[in-house]
Specification:
This protein is α+β, with helices and mostly antiparallel strands. Helices cover about 25% and strands about 30% of the residues.
């Protein structure tokens, strides 16, 4: 029917143009334009695209967590405290999640190891700022650094970091007062006896076993990440307002059902 309207209006326009009926010429030309507008195909529909997902990979409690944006559990990492409005970027693009058991009380000191344990990001002010420290690798046996193959468990409690390595036992940070933190193994402490004596109670009571988490701990026991997760976003068609006007015009001309049938047939 739209084709018929288009042809009839075109013929009327040509006839009026030859006869020099100016008013009728403009009216027929306007009808032709409306029919042409109603029949012309407009591009596109709303499309769904996928972007790098954002997911919580570790939760300290209900308002403190670590967030990762990236594909395959690798990407940009943030420490977030929603209650205190703290958003600290730990890594811009190359952070990876930990796979070992990990429990962390939500206290002022925050320890976030790199996935290869080459360094640990440490905050002493509740996540407002972080500095990088290294696990002490020199001991009586030689240079050694734990990695994901040897780390058995990580616990952070009472603002202290504890890491159990199957080859070197328990690494720990000193008790949290004075001087900057360092993480060393029990065997390494023998090389620093003078310094440890000087630092006093910060290095007292070397643990024989990993400390237990308090009963009120509400955080996660390990990091979690879905490597196959994709985040869909809808890209809206910029011609949507024009498509709406065209649909209304087709309804006015009484050809909406016909246009729908033609579209489904195509």
């Amino acid at each position: 029917m739209l084709i018929s309207y288009l042809l009839v209006s075109l013929l009327l326009f040509l006839f009026a143009f030859v006869k020099r009926w100016h008013l009728f010429c403009w009216l027929s030309y306007s009808v032709f334009l409306l029919c042409f507008w109603a029949i012309i195909p407009l591009p596109g529909e709303d499309k769904v695209k996928y972007t790098a997902p954002t997911q919580v990979v570790f939760r300290f409690d209900d308002h403190r967590f670590i967030q990762l944006t990236g594909y395959g559990c690798r990407g940009r990492m943030y420490y977030i405290d929603e209650q205190k409005q703290i958003y600290y970027e730990l890594a811009r693009h190359s952070a990876e999640v930990l796979t070992e058991p990990f429990a962390h009380m939500p206290e002022d000191y925050i320890f976030v190891p790199l996935s290869d344990y080459s360094a640990i990001d440490v905050s002493q002010d509740g996540g407002r700022s972080f500095t990088s420290i290294h696990l002490k690798t020199t001991d009586l046996i030689g240079n050694y650094r734990p990695d994901y193959n040897t780390v058995e468990n990580i616990v952070v409690v009472n603002n202290q970091f504890f890491l159990k390595d199957k080859n070197r036992g328990i690494y720990r940070s000193p008790k949290p007062y004075g001087t900057r933190p360092v993480v060393i193994s029990a065997t390494s402490e023998k090389l620093f006896e003078d310094s440890i004596r000087y630092m006093g109670l910060r290095w007292a009571d070397q643990p024989k076993t990993m400390p237990a988490m308090p009963a009120n701990y509400s955080g996660w026991q390990r990091w979690q990440c879905d490597p196959s997760l994709k985040q869909p976003i809808t890209v809206y068609n910029r011609y949507a307002p024009l498509i709406k006007l065209q649909t209304q015009l087709r309804q006015l001309l009484g050809v909406s059902e016909e246009a729908t049938h033609v579209q489904e047939t195509n």
